[in-house]
Amino acid sequence: MSPEHLVIDPPTAFERAQSGELLIIDVRSQSEWAQTGVPAGARTASLQNEMGIPNKNFTAEVEAAAGQDLDRPIAFICAAGIRSAVAREIVESLGFSRTLDISEGMFGNPRGPGWIRRGLPTDACPEC
Q1: Conformation bin of residue 60: beta by default, left when phi > 0, alpha when psi is -120 to 50
Q2: What is the pLDDT of residues 16-30, one digit of tens each?
Q3: Are 100 and 2 in contact (CB under 8 A)?
Q4: What is the dihedral sign for C-alpha 88, 62, 112, 33?
Q5: Are 99 and 88 in contact (CB under 8 A)?
């Protein structure tokens, strides 16, 4: 699949998540979740901590969030689209078949304004 087919914009991701078609996983760090909250209804699984050290439990956390269902549609989000793309590639290498990158991230980038500036809802960080 070409890279552009692996990307989803925040409004579409939110709509699909609200209808139960898509699981959103926020891969930012706990301190980032505390600052902004997480996309409404999203699960959390840090790709790395605040110091950039990889989370050894990341893949197990994603598998648990997906209920061990490798065919469950999952979209990853981070601050600006870098870590979410990495997370998508990691879980795809584990056999997850329907992964997407919310490439605008929470704060936006040249691809678009991001979750927050689009005015999409957030939930308070459940672990913070």
Answers
A1: alpha
A2: 999 999 999 999 999
A3: no
A4: negative
A5: yes
